[in-house]
Amino acid sequence: MDEVCIESRFRLLVNGEEVTGMVASAEQLRELGAGFIVSEGLAERVQGVEVSGNDILVGAEVKPGGERVLETSGGTAYLRQVRRVGAGPRITIDDVYRMTAAIESEDWRKTGGLHCSVLFYDGALEAKACDIGRHNTVDKVIGHAVLAGLDRSRCVIGCTGRQPAGMVAKAASAGIPVIISRAASTDQGIKTAEEAGITLICFSRGDRFTVYTHPWRVEGISVPGEGEKIR
């Protein structure tokens, strides 16, 4: 006997119109719907989310424009101008270690097949989500912030998945200024983070991590060429 992940299919409808089909784990579906709409830049906020069978029904004032594309994961994304985030929180090296340690789940230990994302708000763990898709986990924790009415500029996202441009753009659209990932980024992911003003931290494993962009938010690290620690 072995424990395996369960994948399900859902339709996401906004104001009664189908936006996309989704393959996801059947948990935190309200958060998934709200988070997708905001993280893809379709709307700044949602008016309500309901789940009916395999339909996720979102009410929102949708922005015009946005080219629909297929992501590297096979999911749907919308190409829009990258939004620039605000100054946001400062974090320490110990914060990076602590936040990385929180990206754990019992379901992953049982199955080995789930991604996980966490959301920190004012330095405290606020939400955690697991899913078969790395994009979905980010949408779910962003959706938690949306539904809870949190100031997303005070949030940090931690996740297991790699950070190509589409993943970084989700945080930018939501106004979240710091990403911590256990995995790698790509050239376009780093470029997107630089343009958006996001501090992108990847390969956060054990007692090491790499800061690719906007290192000024991480107190206590040395920046090449400066020769002194950031204060």
Architecture overview:
The chain has 231 residues and is an alpha/beta fold. Helix content is 26%, strand content 32%. It is built from 6 helices and 14 strands. Strands 9-8-10-11-12-13 form a 6-stranded mixed beta sheet, sandwiched between helices. It has a 4-stranded mixed beta sheet with strand order 2-1-4-3, with helices on one face. Strands 5-6 form a two-stranded antiparallel ribbon. The protein is globular. The protein starts with 7 loop residues before the first strand and ends in a 12-residue tail after the last strand.
The shape is globular
Question: What is the topology, as strand order, of the major beta sheet?
Answer: 9-8-10-11-12-13
Rg over alpha carbons: 17 Å
Roughly what fraction of the amino acids lie in strands? 25-35%
Return the string of H and E elements: EEHEEEEEHHEEHEHEHEEE
Cα distance, first to last residue? 53 Å
The main β sheet shows up as:
6 strands, mixed
- The total count of strands amounts to 14
Rounded mean pLDDT is 91
Helicity, as a percent range: 25-40%
- Poorly predicted parts: 227-231
Question: Helical stretch count?
Answer: 6
SSE class: alpha/beta
Write out key terms for the chains shown.
231 residues; alpha/beta; 6-stranded mixed beta sheet; 4-stranded mixed beta sheet; 6 helices; 26% helix; globular; disordered C terminus
